[in-house]
Task: structure prediction
Amino acid sequence: MPMNPRLLRPLARRQASAPPFSPSSVAGLVGWYDASDLATLFQNSNGTGAVGGDDPVGYWQDKSGTGNHATQSGSTSLKPTLATASTNGKASLSFDNDSLQCLKFAANPLAGSAAGTAFYVCRGDLGEDACIGHPLAKFGDTVDADHYPCGGFDHYSSFGRDTRFSFSYDPPFTSTHVGVVMSRSADWRFWFKDTLATTKTGSAVSWGSFASIGGNGNESAAAFYYPGVVCEVLLYAAAVSDADRATITNYLVSKWGIA
Result:
């Protein structure tokens, strides 16, 4: 005798797949920049002008809901360009450090917070010697004081004695990777994907007001800008838990096809 269809409905509901993970489900998200979402990218700094292949990008919309959009109001040469299907079939932004390309924030999304965590997916385009010190992003007003090597990964995270951080590269990082930088009061940590690479002790957090993606937009030399592609950046005004860090990292690894 067939079962009553009404009896099957609760089971079907229980077996329905869970909704996909969203970075916004973790508390403290103040910046979410996703190059694969073309609806968040525009040619002009006022959020107008849809982008296509190789178009300049002057506005990267923040998907966190906090309105911390990254923009470039300068000339076209200062804007990164859209690279379609460049990473796991998804679009990314290509930055040319020789042209001093970067996107800036009206205010530092981390300003006023007691801690911060940044996740980023990127791929460097220069050789080892040429890439040392080129920052992917900058969060703070002053030039960083120190570069701390992350042993075994040929990677430098530039934290600075003023506890503002940027993240810099000494490849071979010519393949796409996930990095995590976290500040917890005077404690600074860097992960390469899910492996803790460096822990350092600095000063108490004091972020300052300036922030940019693609380089240190306060500088005028190519050495202070990032040579490569940026796929996604997540900013949390908090030191996320180990469990949340693992979940977010796994989300980025899966999304961008990182080995």
Q: What stands out?
A: The CA atoms of residues 47 and 59 lie 6 Å apart. The radius of gyration is 19 Å. Confidence is low (pLDDT under 50) at residues 127-131, 143-164, 168-172. The chain has one domain: 32-38+55-255.
